[in-house]
Amino acid sequence: MNKRLSGVSTRGIIALAVGLIATLALAPALASGAGELGPANTVFIKADKGGLRFEAPKTIVAGEELEVLNTTNPKQVGPHTFSLVTKGSIPKTPKARQVCFTPKHICMAIAKWHGVSGNGPVKVNPVEAGAEGWDTLGSLTKKGDSWFTGTKPNASIVQKVTAAAGTTIYFMCAIHPWMHGSIEVVAPTPLPLAAS
Question: pTM for this structure?
């Protein structure tokens, strides 16, 4: 057998095998949508020159997973909550934010969802108010879904968005009530029909 031809053939087979293995390894992730999780489906909790804030996608497909990732240093800024609340519950003025952690205000209500009494510890985390995943907006009279980051750096949570397509999820931090945002929940794009 020609050595040169044999070497080309062997290299070609190895390259093909490596490509096939890589494709097979990625197939489950691509099929499940897990490859899409990342910046497009992540709410980042950030602290930089822009101050403390949420950085979130504008939309998410109903049924997809949403990650909430705390990139701040808890020793410098403290912990956070990612709490789903009704739009009207978000404190909009400096005065409303100042009194947010007093009775009959949303920050105090969120603390109670987590089982906090006085200055006591968080006893329920995460808070699942409705169906499993992100779907229930809370208020002063109704518990909502919520997650407390705790004090470990780079804490995160991943849950499916189970809110219905066509709705908007509003969220805020009970500890830093000027931090808030929203994500529009959209319907999945229908797959094209196969030609018959």
Answer: 0.78
SS (H, E, C) the chain: CCHHHHHHHHHHHHHHHHHHHHHHHHHHHHHHCHHHCCHHHEEEEEEECCEEEEECCCEEECCCEEEEEECCCHHHHCCCEEEEECHHHCCCCHHHHHCCCCCCCHHHHHHHHCCCCCCCCCCCCCECCCCCCECCCECCCCCCCEEECCCCCCCEEEEEECCCCCCEEEEECCCCCCCEEEEEEECCCCCCCCCC
Strand partners, 172: 83, 180
What's the token pair of residue 18? Answer: 């490596």
Domain enclosing residue 109, as ranges: 36-186
For residue 15, pLDDT over 60 is answered with: no
Q: Is residue 151 part of a domain?
A: yes
User: pLDDT, tens digit, for every residue of 46-92?
Assistant: 999 889 999 999 999 999 999 999 999 999 999 999 999 999 999 99
Altogether, the residues listed in the chain come to a count of 196
Q: Is residue 196, in this structure, part of any structural domain at all?
A: no
Q: For position 89, which CATH number holds?
A: 2.60.40.420
Q: Beta-carbon neighbour count of residue 53 at 10 Å? A: 18
Q: Is position 194 within any domain?
A: no
Q: How many domains does the structure of the chain reveal?
A: 2
